[in-house]
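B., you asked whether I could sanity-check this one before it goes into the benchmark set. Here's the sequence:
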Amino acid sequence: MNVRRHRISGIPGIALAATAALGLGTLTACSSDTAAAGNTDKFDVVASFYPMAFLAEQIGGDHVKVTSLTEPGQEPHDLEISAKQTAQLQESDAALYLKGLQPSVDEAITQSGIKTKIDAASLTSLEEHGTEVGEHADEHADEHAGEHADEHADEHGHSHEGEGGKDPHIWLDPVKYAEVAEGVGKAFEKADPDHAADYKKNTEALVKRLGELNTKFETGLKNTDTKVFITTHAAFGYLAERYGLTEEAISGLDPESEPSAARVKDLATMAKADGVSTVFYETLVSDKTAKTLAKDARLKTDVLDPIEGITDKSRGDDYFQVMEANLKALQQALGAK
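And here's what the prediction gave me:
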């Protein structure tokens, strides 16, 4: 943040005037260049992937320069940090990431000398979700951020079959995402106190919008023909719990894992018993498995986007638009009244 400002202040007046006349456009263009993470005159934030970058941009506003380590369209779970990205990290003012989702990012940030390291996973409670999510999700609506994940798992009767482990997909629950936003806002205020008032105001506005989104999901999914939905990737456990639904995933928390023939057969049987009409797939991972299951079980397919990145295939330009598209898809598939 401060390096370029100091360099420019040390240039003699004539040279600075020449720089302004000839090269200011280059400097301005550079501020939005994804390759130039550090050394701008803004608060430089490296974000691990889209949901973290979106938070940083919404909270930071004009005061931040955000660089995402995961390119649009790249599957975040597969990311391997390059030497260039490691250098970007070293030059930045803050890193915002979600520990447990991208091991190479976790390692690079831990080893970096960045002063402000913000782990989104530490700002809310993570839970264990396998291929199946508990059915008593409506009891979960008044969850408090400080409760322990294991207590939730036992209390709500979740199955820990499949891969289990702590589920990182917290951004798909607007309430948890708002908790993370509040923590990120406080971290920005502390790290860049000159702009603390703006960070606070922006955080409050974002949390309000997330609260409104939560209300839309609560209202829109309250009365449905079925509460069960099938996805290729177990990304929607928090969303399912929040709104009284049950997610059945073809594969586990890893979107690339292949399901067993027995799992596919069980899902086809379950779909018939629970009145499931649709198998959901996502934009960044192959839809082959979903379409095979749907064909065998005579079901429809549709997109339920885990919003790990925004691409031309996304049903919207940002987090809120895609979440509203997800709500519509769920309402249609579940028979919302």
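One thing to flag: Residues 49 and 71 are 8 Å apart (CA to CA). Otherwise nothing jumped out at me.
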